[in-house]
Write a structure and sequence with these properties.
The protein is of the alpha/beta class. Helices cover about 35% and strands about 20% of the residues. It folds into two domains: about 90 residues; about 300 residues, Spore Coat Polysaccharide Biosynthesis Protein SpsA, Chain A.
């Protein structure tokens, strides 16, 4: 009830009451945790559902591009009835399937503690099953790149303090506030959301400062740890770095990275199953998400994020004779390697300069989250897309109301829990963030030990 239409009622409610209401809602949402991982549960649901399809003598095919199975529309009613008789829940996945399919479904056995986040994925086709990809579908290999840092590491903390002392210039508070580096195990839950909702991902690259989470199964066949020293052109000159723009400028150098990959910050989460078409157009064009706001009209033009956007604009005007002003949503960012390589070839000295900046600076570019999208648009390799998305600033005055809205919205494609500046009431807000992530992603991924 506090969420209210446009939040009018919610904004009038004291934080203490909102906090109690939110805590109660999260406890009610909590799911039992089993011993199986998301991947193991999905495999079990797939084995069970395909066994029923075979018993019925149904024709079905596999679509590895989307990690789904495909059945005809004529066979679906009897298949669904038999699944339900066998104790399976059939949950429709709205608007996330091949253009050739009429619907898509997540099929999960109700015996699995009520958890439905790892169902077997089935598409229902009114036409032929082979081929199951439409002319409008993206078909191809997609990798994922995460960047992550462990600020509790004593060596990292010592390097950070030394770098601040040696900076020799004023450093913007938003660039150095420890909230930017604080970990609440967001990566753990983001990987859970990835395995639940993007099961078709080919490989995950985790870029770190020679660190690794204690819980990470680093021998996972679909995971590669990438040290900053492997991708910085001049590591002795540039490292250690505490500038995300510098790290992002070097992602193009990751060995073995696929032409199509999605760049994900660890504070971004996938809220439901997403078909590859969410991220790429039929010819592999990257689908980026424009925000409604304009950086040119931002209240604080001197914030590093706004300065980087202005610097991006200068290059776009110079290269294409077009201006830019819109911000981009803080979501997962689909990339084309050839776009990043083109930027690297055009501006090698500028990228080398950014790589040497240990903290964000006025000369930075924000490449994968902004500039690459602008270049992709002008080169015919990208275009705008819309997703159902929510952004929550953990330090915001509306934090508790925003979290209530997030907790009650099961239809989000993606959401972000960002912390720009360290919050004063961490003892209250930190557990709320953790509880929400636990409630939405209660089952371990195969990336965990």
């Amino acid at each position: 009830m506090f969420e209210g239409w446009r939040g009018r009622l919610g904004r009038a409610v004291p934080d203490q009451l909102l906090r109690r209401h939110l805590s109660s809602k999260l406890r009610a949402m909590d799911s039992s945790k089993g011993q199986l991982t998301i991947r193991e549960l999905r495999e079990r649901n797939l084995e069970g559902s395909t066994a029923i399809a075979r018993t019925l003598g149904l024709t079905f095919t596999e679509d590895p591009n989307s990690s789904t199975s495909c059945v005809s529309q004529d066979d679906w009613p009897s298949f669904r009835r038999e699944l339900q008789r066998a104790g399976y829940a059939c949950d429709r996945i709205q608007e996330q399937h091949s253009y050739a399919a009429g619907s898509a479904w997540s099929i999960s056995h109700t015996a699995d503690s009520g958890f439905r986040g790892a169902g077997a994925l089935w598409q229902v086709f009114p036409g032929t099953l082979i081929p199951c990809a439409d002319a409008q579908d993206f078909v191809g290999t997609i990798d994922v790149v995460y960047t992550w840092v462990d600020s509790s590491d004593p060596k990292w903390a010592a390097d950070y303090r030394y770098a601040r002392e040696q900076a020799g210039r004023p450093v913007d508070e938003s660039s150095t506030d420890m909230a930017r580096f604080t970990s609440r195990d967001e990566l753990l839950f983001s990987l859970r959301s990835l395995e639940m909702n993007l099961p078709w991902v080919n490989h995950v690259y985790l870029v770190t400062a020679g660190q690794k989470p204690a819980w990470l199964a680093e021998s996972h066949p679909k995971l590669t740890l990438v040290d900053h020293r492997e991708i910085f052109t001049d590591p002795n000159e540039c490292l250690p770095t505490f500038n995300s723009h510098a790290i992002e400028s070097q992602l193009v150098n990751i060995p073995g990275l696929n032409e199509n990959f999605i760049y994900v910050n660890d504070d971004v989460f996938f809220g439901r199953y997403l078909f590859p078409n969410t991220f790429y157009g039929p010819a592999g064009q990257a689908k980026y998400c424009l925000a409604t706001g304009h950086f040119a009209s931002a209240a604080n033009q001197e914030l590093p994020v706004n300065r980087a956007a202005a610097n991006n604009r200068e290059l776009v005007v110079e290269r294409f004779g077009r201006t830019t002003s819109r911000k981009f949503q803080h979501v997962a960012h689909p990339q084309r390697m050839q776009v990043l390589q083109g930027i690297q070839k055009l501006y090698p000295e500028r990228l080398a300069q950014i790589a040497r900046q240990r903290f964000r600076s006025d000369t930075d570019l924000s490449i994968p989250s902004s500039l690459a999208h602008q270049f992709a648009a002008r080169l015919g390799l990208g275009f705008p897309n819309k997703v159902n998305y929510q952004y929550v600033d953990i330090g915001s005055d509306s934090f508790y109301l925003d979290m209530l809205r997030l907790a009650r919205n099961p239809g989000l494609d993606m959401f972000c829990l960002n912390e720009v500046l360290k919050v004063d009431d961490e003892l209250n807000r930190g557990p709320i963030v953790r509880d929400l992530l636990e409630s939405k992603f209660p089952v371990k991924s195969s990336f965990e030990k």
